[in-house]
Amino acid sequence: QTGHTTLDYGFVNTASTKSAITYIDGDQGILRYRGYPIEQLAKNSTYLEVAWLLIYGELPSASELESFDERIRRHTLLHEDLKSLFSALPPTAHPMSVLSAATAALSTYYESESDPHNPEHVELNTVRMLAKLPVIAAYAHKKSIGQAFLYPDNKLSFVDNFLKLNFGVMSETYESNPVMTKALDLLLMLHADHEQNASTSTVRLVGSTGANQFASISAGIQALSGPLHGGANEAVLQMLGRIRDSGESVERFVERVKNKEEGVKLMGFGHRVYKNYDPRAKLVKEAADEVLEALGVSDPLLDLAKELEQIALEDDYFKARRLYPNVDFYTGVIYKAMGFPTRMFTVLFAIGRLPGWLAQWREAITDPQTKIGRPQQLYTGAAVRNYPGV
Ligand code: SDX
């Protein structure tokens, strides 16, 4: 399940990374965080407990989890000056761009405490990132809808604090909704890590140069924003909306996908590793029915997504290419039912993935095998030649 391949070029093949954090079996549709199957964690654990598991390697004791939660609460405030960064950005700024920019800016407040080889700095900034990224995300949301920023309310749980920062307003008393709290906690957990995906590889690559956690996470956020990666959850909702608004039948849309018209893809389907049903997608699909019913929301887009899935799973084109729903296929319907704007969906993915990024960054910088990232190249350019007249 782990291993290095050292190619005959005499250097370690950077394409294969050794890690003890997450195990995926794409053919079997298996996902385990530090050996625990995702299905068991989804049923019995919480996002913060899983964050500890990924970062420290073992499930926390009750007192460890309590002190972790307490430390995170104590770091939720952003420096007041940092808030002016948000007003410097255009109101139309994509929340993922705001998230990455504010994360990079965060590092400017802690430059004297960001030595990647100082364990105290690493510990402190791990907690700072876990505490502050959700606040930055909520401010990106508030900015996109022109509402005032709230201060964190540390009497609330981690997830409720985040929900209040997003949906609370100055003039009202915020009422937590246990259905939303439980559903969001599950979704954040399901996104918490996923082995060497594009954004995690970016975080490790940037960290391998000696850059600090803030810089590495900011780069990972940008990598995640692409529609082929984390941006897919936003693209799925846009795809479903276009099908609904066009009046086009699902069958007709699937035909256009198979004909590869203008690069039309079935967003939320397919995966670099899973050539079977993404185990997270199964869990999200189950949650979608429960959450929408509990919230009293009926969304035709959920029915459309199920119809699309049904047709694709029975179609030889998708079967031959082993294309199944991935984690992004159903998440957007739940986020929408909660009241998040579509452009916040990938931000929620980033909040979920943060513990995995931090765990993988810490593993990379403490692994003596880690060399500065330098992916291999196979040169395909011109053979050696002389400058004219030489
Ligand atoms: C995430 O790596 C991770 O772990 C990522 C992630 C994580 O947790 O970090 O799991 C999160 O990013 C999930 C993926 C979200 N992206 C999407 O849903 C976008 C749509 N999916 C595709 O773009 C695609 O499936 C990829 C990029 C995800 C994976 O592509 P692959 O495995 O490199 O496959 P490919 O591009 O080589 O395609 C193989 C064939 C091609 O057809 P042919 O050229 O053989 O005729 O399958 C086709 C592709 O055209 N294909 C699709 C398709 N995905 C692949 N056709 C239609 N719709 C799709 N979604």
Characterization of the model:
This protein is mainly α. Helices cover 54% and strands 3% of the residues. It has 17 helices and three strands. The chain has helices at residues 38-44, 47-56, 62-73, 83-88, 95-106, 119-144, 158-167, 178-190, 198-207, 213-224, 232-246, 250-258, 279-294, 300-313, 316-320, 328-338, 345-366; strands at residues 22-25, 30-33, 36-37. It has a three-stranded antiparallel beta sheet with strand order 1-2-3. Strand 1 (22-25) and strand 2 form a beta hairpin. Helix 6 runs antiparallel to helix 17, helix 10 packs across helix 17 and helix 13 (279-294) packs parallel to helix 16. The longest helix is centred in the middle third of the chain and has 26 residues, at 119-144. The site of s-citryldethia Coenzyme A has 21 residues, from loops.
